[in-house]
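Hi F.,

I've been meaning to write this up properly since the lab meeting, where we talked about keeping a consistent format for the predictions we share between groups. The idea is simple: the sequence comes first, exactly as it goes in, then the structure tokens exactly as they come out, then a line or two of notes. No screenshots and no reformatting. I'm using this chain as the first example so we have something concrete to point to.
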Amino acid sequence: MIKNFVLPLTAAAVLVSSVSAYAVEPLRVAADPVPHAEILAYVQKIDPDLNLKVIEIPSGVNSNELLAHGDIDANYFQHRPYLATQEKALGVKFAVAAEVHIEPLGIYSSKYKHYSQLPDKAKVAIPNNETNLSRGLYLLQDQGLITLKPDLKGLATPLDIIGNPKHLKILEIESPQIPRALPDVDLAVINGNFALEAGLDPAKDALGLEKAKGNPYANILVTSQKLAEDPRILRLAKDLESPQVAEFIQQKYHGSVLPVSAAKS
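Output, unedited:
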């Protein structure tokens, strides 16, 4: 009788130990260095009891693949339209846990101060992934540089350009490489995080920026379906969407990065 009684207790102890160990395991979050990892570092400061392990992802590493394979618990670097293309490519459905900030896409030049100075057949570097390519083309249109087909359904491509008075040459380049290509082109359409990493100040240096209000490209915290209700994910999501983090973003990035709450106002 004693032996039969001890075994269930031992099994229960192992189970409790396992649950406790799981509860204190660090939440592994992959992030771009700027501004995502910086924002997560601030979260660690205001919520020290949340055990985060922030993994800065180098260029060329797909953290959605890492998430799909269980090598990380969440990532924070992308917007919903890009996530949709990744889910299709990987055959995996992820979960969006929080919407945090917007990095307005910008147009930069190291040669010209105004679009009027652009020569005919000017070279324009633009992100080559389909969502940010479309996003960049719409920004060029908003700045009066090109005209796209009206009533486009789906993402825009260079084939949809119907007006190009300066005969701009669109060069599709990997997003992280565009800041390095800036001296070799006339204009460059650069994602906000890569502009910041390159020492550019989007709010001051960009010739044109995306509008924040109504912008569908909010950067999001993404996790697996399995972890969508994990208490650690829910806590991190609440922190990232908090007024304290919104204030931190506004004070640190001075309009180059905008909290989602500010973009909605």
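Notes:
The chain has two domains: 25-103+215-264, 106-209.
Residues 25-103+215-264 form a domain with the D-Maltodextrin-Binding Protein; domain 2 fold (CATH 3.40.190.10).

If this format works for you, I'll send the rest the same way.

G.
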